[in-house]
Amino acid sequence: VQLQESGPGLVKPSQTLSLTCTVSGDSIATRSYAWMWIRQPPGKGLEWMGAIAKSGSTWYSSSLKSRTSISRDSSKNQFTLQLTSVTPEDTAVYYCTRGLNSWGQGTQVTVSP
Q1: To 10 degrees, the CA torsion angle through 58, 64, 67, 73?
Q2: What's the pLDDT score for residue 30?
């Protein structure tokens, strides 16, 4: 399986960050994995943000729940992260992962005016 993140590398404060994870070699709609988003701010550890299951059920970090939404497009085998009202503290490398055993390469997102 391969996962590839895509989206803007620079987002302005207060805007909404949208990232897409494109999956190949597996199906997000049929396999019983949690398809997740995880991020790593500079100099800090990994932070789990949320996940979506094959059923479409979602789970979110309690600290980010009010600003986070994960959805999917099964026809494109993609799942998407939206993070609203971003601040510079949301600057991080964002990863998508299949059940923590397969990861994308990560994409750098910087929040700056």
Answers
A1: -30
A2: 84
